[in-house]
Design brief:
about 160 residues, alpha/beta, nine-stranded mixed beta sheet, three-stranded antiparallel beta sheet, 4 helices
Length: about 160
Amino acid sequence: MKRPRISIIAAIGKNRELGKDNKLLWHISEDLKRFKKLTTGHPIIMGRKTFDSIGRVLPNRVNIVVTRDDSFKQDDVLACNSIKEALEKAESVENDEIFIIGGGQIFEQIIKFADRLYLTVVEGGYEADAFFPDYSKFKTIVSSQNGESEGLRYKYVVLER
């Protein structure tokens, strides 16, 4: 039996910026719609800080949170102590595609296992304290036309190892 594809989905700046003070740097409506369309029906793995910043369980997805806090309990969330455990839980409920949605520490730990990256690359440099890991070993398979939202220019890029 083949294992599911492990995909990372993120919006990043040209210098791989992800966020600051546990918040996204942008609010791009079209990107959020794309995120929902791609991840709905699949397990999503995230760190506890990312879960806290979202503030709720994302519907129609198995929400898996990686945390070192053994007391972390949340309805409709599978809590795991490691990336390995999170991937095992996700694979037990999915045979197509698993999405990793953040944050920076989780991306750093999991990128070596990732098969595909769905990136929204926002033009310009931004002040950040969380960054996406180096992804130079991945090759672009799809790059879309540039989009623009509220003065932000961006493009969607899909890469594979």
